[in-house]
Amino acid sequence: MAEESPRACAExxxxxxxxxxxxTSDYYRVSADLPGRFNNxxxxxxYRTQKAVSVYRTSNQAYxxxxxxxxxxx
Length: 74
Known about the structure:
The chain has a domain at about 25-45 and about 55-74. The protein has three helices and no strands. It is about 20% helix and about 0% strand.
């Protein structure tokens, strides 16, 4: 008599829904003519980390290495 494992009979689990990206207007009062790129900081790309070539890190490199959040937008 062949028995099936409980995992084989179980229905596949649906992936969890992801939270919508944070918007600046969720936290702050903004004007209606605020450009979309400032209201949606998650749209910014290019904030990848690269291997540091120097033996020191400047404050500009440290600040610029992080992607913007809703609290840092104009």
